[in-house]
Amino acid sequence: MSLVKPRHATRQVSVGNIKIGGAAPIAVQSMTNSYTQDVDATVAQIHRLYDAGCEIVRVAVPDMEAACAIGKIKKRLSQPEDGSHGIDIPVIADIHFDYRLALASADAGADGLRINPGNIGEKRKIKAVADCARSFNIPIRVGVNSGSLEKDIVEKMGATAEAMAESAMRNIKILEDLDFSDIKISLKASDVARTVEAYRLISTLTDVPLHVGVTEAGGLYAGITKSAIGIGMILADGIGDTIRVSLTRDPVEEVRVGWEILRSLGLRKRGPEIISCPTCGRCRINLFDIADKVENALLKCPLTIKVAIMGCVVNGPGEAKEADIGIAGGDGVGILFKKGSVVKKIPQNRLVETLIEEIEKYS
Ligand code: SF4
Questions:
Q1: What is the CATH number for 287?
Q2: In ligand 1, which atom is closest to the CA atom of 310?
């Protein structure tokens, strides 16, 4: 039985090589937190994000130096100076306040622009951004944020979900009146209820593809919980074409959580699913350490298999047998299971490397 309602129909846009909306897979995004002007640091962080499964990356563009850096970043990503293979990941420029930064970012090679019309100002500036995006054939994401809605809307409606939807529709109309329809939209608030309500509302009003997230969700615990519930509820309603988990952490963690949300809802899979027990007084191996090491070692593994890491033989073998491959701990040893059968006993100090070796040769 699927947890997820049929997907809300949206038009499709392209961000570089990634399609958003229509029947395209729900894409996972993140945002760098390096200084964009620091090309080395930003390229290194984008590589780490890409390895973790990030499909679109956004960079902050606070000034002209950052806008110009996008050209260098894109070049270094596609043609690394050390002669290694390049990567193809769309880079979106995140613009606030100064529309000229959007023009410069597009000119430098950005694959998309994210603007907040509430702080870009006059229509002529938005028109300049739309004309520029059209000439470079790149989309614009209108990022509506409950904290920076247009003044007249807040005065009339407060910073409510209805106000966020009103702002979104107003900005869609502004762009469409300018004959620009290559749009995505996000409506983010820092609380789950308003965010969910805003997305439910907007999905009844437009077919513009939706970028989903709970903004400023917080640190690891609050951020993961709010994002999993908020993004999860929206996706389960069949709403959303791309997601970003927002955490006060290394953005690589955002990508990992994003993929876990998609996997939990049965929407997309990437890499092994790791099932591990919480341990209890029966556990005689260092399971936390083993689970951590295996999880990190498998970050780049493309196999969509189920891996069980269980503390003991009480529930352990049962779970491990249901997985494609797994271990159940004993006293200083682990029992390796594969496709439902016991393969061998492994001493504790060889458990991690043996399990990883077995996963690597799994077929
Ligand atoms: S698998 Fe064993 S160690 Fe883990 S929680 Fe269950 S009983 Fe405890």
A1: 3.30.413.10
A2: 1
Write out pLDDT tens, residues 220-247: 899 999 999 999 999 999 999 999 999 9
pTM assigned to the model: 0.93
Name the residue with tokens 């503390």.
311
Nearest CA to ligand 1 atom 7: 314
Domain end among 237, 264, 291: 264
Q: How many CA atoms lie within 13 A of 2 on its CB side?
A: 12
| Residue 129, domain member (yes or no) | yes
- Centre of ligand 1 to C-alpha 315, Å, is 6
For the chain, how many structural domains are there in total? 2
State the CATH number of the domain containing residue 119. 3.20.20.20
Those residues of the chain that have pLDDT short of 50 are none
Q: Is residue 354 part of a domain?
A: yes
pLDDT in tens, 14-58: 999 999 999 999 999 999 999 999 999 999 999 999 999 999 999
- Distance in Å, CA 309 to ligand 1 centroid: 10
- What confidence score (pLDDT) does residue 44 get? 96
Question: Are 146 and 123 within 8 A, CB to CB?
Answer: no
Domain boundary at 264, 281, 310, which?
Answer: 264
As for ligand 1, residues whose beta carbon falls within 6 Å of it are 277-280, 282-283, 310-312, 314-316
Q: Which domain holds residue 149?
A: 13-264
> Which of ligand 1's atoms lies nearest the C-alpha of 280?
8
Q: At how many degrees (to 10) do helices 251-264 and 220-236 cross? A: 40
CB-based contacts of 174: which residues, under 8 Å, 6+ apart?
117, 123, 126
Q: How far is CA 330 from CA 68, 326, 352, in A?
A: 58, 13, 14
Same domain, 120 and 177: yes
